[in-house]
Amino acid sequence: ATLDGGADLSQADLLGAILASADLNDADLSLTDLRSTDLRYVKLQDANLKVADLSNAQGITNAQLDQQAASLEGATMPNGQTYEDWLKSREENGKNSGTS
């Protein structure tokens, strides 16, 4: 896909789209349906992914999304968790490591 950074794709239905290697830096992807999309090598620096549905998205991890996106508030992550639940479980795992 060839998309210019800063694209406004809010509320778009991109279910199952192949977005591999797309430049979505600074894009507005809020409320976008990104279920089962191919996000390998996609650029999402400072993208707005508020309330986006990334369930079963391929080629990107929750951690990579967290590092790149400007906002993931209310988003559904590739593993099906909400962003907030994923953050909680990540914090709990960090606290529990090394304790009995």
What does this structure look like?
The chain has helices at 62-68, 83-96. It has two helices and no strands. The model has no long low-confidence stretch (mean pLDDT 91). The longest helix has 14 residues, at 83-96. It is mainly alpha-helical and 100 residues long.
Short description:
The protein is mainly α and 100 residues long.
Major sheet attributes: none
| Number of distinct beta strands | 0
Q: How much strand content do the residues show?
A: under 5%
Query: Any low-confidence stretches, pLDDT <50, length ≥5?
Result: none
Count of discrete alpha- or pi-helical segments spanning 4 or more residues: 2
Q: What structural category characterises the helix and strand content?
A: mainly alpha
Roughly how many Å apart are the termini? 48 Å
Mean pLDDT: 91
Order of helices and strands: HH
Rg (C-alpha, Å): 14 Å
Helix content: 10-25%
What does the overall shape look like?
A: globular
Features:
single chain, 100 residues, mainly alpha, 2 helices, globular
What's the SSE blueprint?
Blueprint (H helix, E strand, L loop, with lengths): L61 H7 L14 H14 L4
